[in-house]
Specification:
Order of helices and strands: HHHHHHEEEEEEEE
CATH architecture of one domain: Sandwich
Strand content: 15-25%
Shape: globular
Helix content: 40-55%
Radius of gyration: 27 Å
Strand order of the largest sheet: 1-2-3-6
CATH class of one domain: Mainly Beta
Structural class: alpha+beta
Length: 250
């Protein structure tokens, strides 16, 4: 991607996602040394990408260790190859070292086999795989907006003290919303996003008390992004005073 020198600040999202080529990255790294605002924004984007990737990481099933250890009893260990002239003492030492290495290799091989098979052979593994695909797709969608050459960023605070960021791309007619420090909603309530189209508020998805989402809907023609606290499941129109009404960055 190419960028005019006067627009160097717009490269911060692409830098955080490693989407710059070598020369652009070198130039922008030099810019970061002089620009406190870009350093802070790059750190926020990197933290956001890490939070979005986290759902793809899943702990192994609790029974996997027991299955792996039980499988070791069925792994045949081959005798070591030693020269005909080797002494009994030397042979014994080699055997012990080889046996230890083979046991370790067998443990690693069995663990890797069970880890791979679990994702495909068990219903639990399939759920993990589906979650990983969904997390990867969300990250791809968000990354596309953040790395867009025309991406523009705006920051605001909500009325309940949370920090928010909106990154919008006119070329793609999409925007990304990030919230940090939103208090957890009360049971039966949820945070809902809105797009303001000439005074008409249209539902634009939901956000957890902390996180990053791609705003639902086409942002073409929208002038602002809103955030309200709504009943679980959302509303067709805002039912509470807005916690945030932020102009879409141009």
């Amino acid at each position: 991607m190419s960028q005019h020198r006067s627009d160097v600040h717009a490269l911060v999202a692409a830098y955080a996602l490693n989407a710059l080529d070598a020369s652009e990255r070198e130039a922008f790294t030099g810019h970061l040394e002089q620009c406190e605002a870009c350093r802070q924004e790059a750190a926020e984007f990197e933290a956001t990408a890490a939070r979005m990737a986290a759902p793809a990481a899943q702990a192994p099933p609790a029974a996997m260790k027991d299955r792996t250890m039980a499988a070791l009893d069925g792994v045949r260990q081959l005798p070591p190859r030693v020269g005909a002239s080797a002494s009994p003492a030397a042979f014994t030492g080699v055997l012990r070292r080889k046996a230890g290495l083979l046991a370790l290799a067998a443990s690693l091989a069995a663990a890797a086999s069970f880890a791979g098979l679990a994702a495909w052979q068990s219903q639990e593994g399939e759920r993990y795989e589906q979650r990983a695909r969904q997390a990867e797709q969300r990250l791809d969608d968000v990354s596309t907006v953040l790395a867009a050459p025309d991406a523009r960023t705006a920051h605001r605070q909500t009325s309940n003290g949370a920090s928010t960021t909106v990154v919008a791309s006119k070329r793609q007619n999409k925007a990304v919303f990030t919230a940090t420090g939103l208090p957890a909603p009360a049971p039966g309530r949820t945070y809902q996003l809105w797009l303001d189209h000439e005074g008409t508020m249209r539902p634009a998805g939901f956000v957890d008390h902390d996180g990053t989402v791609l705003i639902d809907g086409d942002t073409a023609g929208a002038t602002a992004v809103g955030l309200t606290l709504e009943p679980a499941g959302g509303s067709s129109q805002p039912t509470t005073a807005p916690l945030l009404l932020m102009k879409l960055p141009a």
